[in-house]
Each structure stands twice: as C-alpha cells, then as structure tokens.
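re: that chain from earlier
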Amino acid sequence: MTDHRDRPMPILANKHHSEASAFEPGNLLREARRHEGLAVRDVPAICVLDPDGDLVRRLRQDGRATTDRDWACYHSELDRFVEGDVEFGIVGCVVGASYAVLVAEQFFAAGCRLLISMTSSGQLQPVRPPPYFILIEQALRDEGTSYHYLPPSDFAQADTGVIAALESAFDGMREPAPFRETERAIATMTARGLLAVEMEAAALYAFAQACGKRAVCFAHVTNQMGHVNGSRSSCRSSSREGPCRAVAPASGLGAF
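^ sequence. v structure.
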C-alpha cells in the first residue's frame, strides 16, 4: 500500500496561488450573456449576499426590490433596491463558501466595488440573547474554498481599512466566526473564544485578499446552535428588518 504521509492533503496540493486562474469570471459572464441574449449592464457598486434569502424576500414583499433581467450569473437572481440614496444589488440564497465566492467573483467582474455578506449564524458564546449582529474581523478557515485562494493559515482576515471605516458604526461587534458544528468542535472553538458559526466568511475574505477586492461579512446571530435548556430548538429572528438596517451604514464604503 502506498504511504501518503509525506504528501500534502489534496485540498492543499497543487494550488499554485501566484499563478493566474484559467477561468476568468468576466469571460463566463460574456458567454452567458451571448447564450441568453442579455444586455451588458453593470451591477451597483455595492452588492449584498443574502444566504438565508430573508432580506430579499422582505424587500420583494415590500415592493422595494426590482429584478435585474440582465444578470448573467447562472443559478442566481439579482435584485436591485435603494436604501437611503444608495442603490444596492442583492442575491439571495447564496448558501455555502463555494457558491458565495462564485457569485462574488462575478459581482466584481460586473462592476461591484464593495461586497457585503449578511448571513444567519449560530451562537457559541452567550454574549447576549439572539438576535444580534457580529462584524466579522477574521474567520476560521474550517472549509475548503479559501485554500484555492491563499496558502494555509488558521484564519482569513478582513481588510483592515474596511473594518476601521466601520468601527464607529458597529463598535464592539467585531468577532471571528468558525464553520463546523460537531459537539467536540463547538467545545473547542468556544474555548478558543470564537463566538459564532457561519459558512461563507473565510472563503470570501480569502478571495478578497487574493484578488484585491473589498468585502465585509456580518453574522446575524439568530439561534443557539439548536440547544436551549438541553433541548433542540431554533430562535430564528422573526424580523427581517435588522439585516437591512445593518447593511445601510456600510454603504459609505462604496465611495472609497
């Protein structure tokens, strides 16, 4: 039997991070437009990933969202909405690291200048009763997508300039966030001081760092990992207005 102990794990092997990608998101958008007969139209400068889809559903319900019929990214729908005087683009139900980065790459290829991710997450540390928001400053790389963008490390870091610009708006909400949620993993990550579980931030921050893009990720802590008084339950927030209020202060980042 072949001994593989001296070989890197497949997820870490042959990544060649300094080399250009063979697949350019702009080319994929061009071919999708050609195939579907879509017009070339830039997305708004600020775009939002809404993995849960709650924000998109609320915006549509309130008549504030307009579907962009020329959005050429396969398997997703782009809506546009205005908050204050700022237009945003938003894609809902972008669940998981790989899918989030796929849409993010195509956002930036289509004119996005700032990406905001707003996802629900599970509480590790009982900081306060849910729901509340965490501005993620670093995310544990306990997934696979980030390793296609950056060499191995424990955490993927948010852009310090973006975080600094948001400090006054979201004081005291900067925390790291992990991915996996087995009982032993929960205990280990809680002991390390991590406060929430989510799935997209590590990959989005790795992509942003590797490609020179600006992204900021929020965790909307809405549940207690299914555990309340020893029983399995959910305390998902019934309000969908919170994420929209959290996105609005970040809109000023689109100008720098």
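Residues 23 and 105 are 11 Å apart (CA to CA).
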